[in-house]
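Justification of resources, computational component.

The compute hours requested in this renewal are based largely on the per-chain cost of generating structure records like the one below. Each record pairs the submitted sequence with a full structure-token output. That output is archived, and it is also reused by downstream analysis tasks.
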Amino acid sequence: MKHQKKEHRVIEGQIPTRTYQDLRAECGLSGKTDLASEIGLQNSVHSVMIEIEGNVIGMGRLIGDGGCFCQIVDICVHPEFQGSGFGKMIMQNLSDFINEELPSSCYVSLLADGNAYKLYEQFGFKETMPSSRGMYLSKE
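The structure output for this chain reads:
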């Protein structure tokens, strides 16, 4: 269900641990322990949140070394606010940071779940296949 445009704030800076964990759960993303969240969040290269009426309804992060390699992660918008342009706002903020703050040779990657690739294509992201294949290792 799309909401009418409400007053929102774009907030840059470290995402609070509980906010991060709660929003991931509300958006259907995997859970992260307190320790993992605290370590990861404090080591973000750049983080952004969207707040409406005092509640964080969306977020996104850029992680990596800030020079050679970075990855966009944790792009999520609370289901009640999906389809209202907030994901695009988050990506625009991250894209602006990438273009203004990272070296031109920095390789920025992401993993697109479902149809999210349609959003990321708007910001210049392309599939890596067949020249490379994304892979992962999960400790769980």
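The two ends are 34 Å apart (CA to CA). Residues 86-101 form the longest helix (16 residues).
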